[in-house]
Amino acid sequence: MTDCNLIRIEPDDRLVVLARTLQVQAPHTEAILAQRVLGDTGLGRMVLGYALYRHCSVFQGSSDAPVWSHIDLTYYRDIVPERAVHEFVLTQQPEGVQLLRAEVLLTTPSSFVMPLGWQGSRGRLDQQASLEYIDVRPADLAAYRDVMRRHVGPTAGKLVASGRFGTFRAMETDAVLFQDPALGTGWNQIHLCEVDAASFRGFGQELDAVPDGDAPEGGFAGVFANLAPMRTIPRWTFNDAVVEADLALAQSLTREAC
User: Fewer Cβ neighbours under 10 Å: the N or C end of the chain?
Assistant: First the structure.
């Protein structure tokens, strides 16, 4: 696959995401979560994509807070509808579901990349969803975004093009709508990427392995060393995809120029 077969978020392609961090008590409740979002005829027409991920293991964590069981992501164009906030955040959750955090995410320009023919991770039993929760110091947000736009996003896109990554989706917290005080940790960035969990050793090594990557002199080891004072990573998890209904996102993004 070449870069011409990628779709990428740029500043004019605004997507917003309603992200909910959940503790789900019973497996059968997973189906109820997806049905509530996708089954509503009114909200369903507004949804560009939806995915539900189940926690599998911790890859890296600097916090002792308990790990939540699920996170779901609902993608919209331009704004999260007020009705969606009311339905999925402000009203009582289904029995067996505890809402721990709800937030609105914005896609990071040049760092939200999918293959043009994205079909989800079905059929790729080697891949799991890496969900990296990052807390960037507010004073460093502009500098962090610039590093993502100029270096990390473009090189991650090459790994998506090669099939090494399923997608690479960097998203920034625009507003926290709710957080349970018992959650015990926080973040302002979520990075989603489907990877081979058995061989994955971290983004620094993966990006440095790209022969024509976009790292400055010193490689991505230097890039991530420079990012270290700007951020902490309170939690980084591997997850199983329970529901992936995000194929329509490909129709909303900018195709790479050949």
Answer: C
First-to-last C-alpha distance (Å) of the chain? 12
> With helix as H, strand as E and coil as C, how does the chain read?
CCHHHEEECCCCCCEEEEEEEEEECCCCHHHHHHHHHHCCHHHHCCCCEEEEEEEEEEEECCCCCCCCCEEEEEEEECCCCHHHHHHHHHCCCCCCEEEEEEEEEEEEEEEEEEECCCCCCCCCCCEEEEEEEEEECHHHHHHHHHHHHHHHHHHHHHHHHHCCCCCEEEEEEEEEEEECHHHCCCCCEEEEEEEECCCCCCHHHHHHCCCCCCCCCCHHHHHHHHHHHHEEEEEEEEEEEEEEECHHHHHCCEECCC
Per-residue CA distances from 241 to 27, 52, 71, 148 (Å): 13, 6, 10, 25
Q: Alpha-carbon distance 131 to 24, whole Å?
A: 18
CA distance 231 to 226: 10
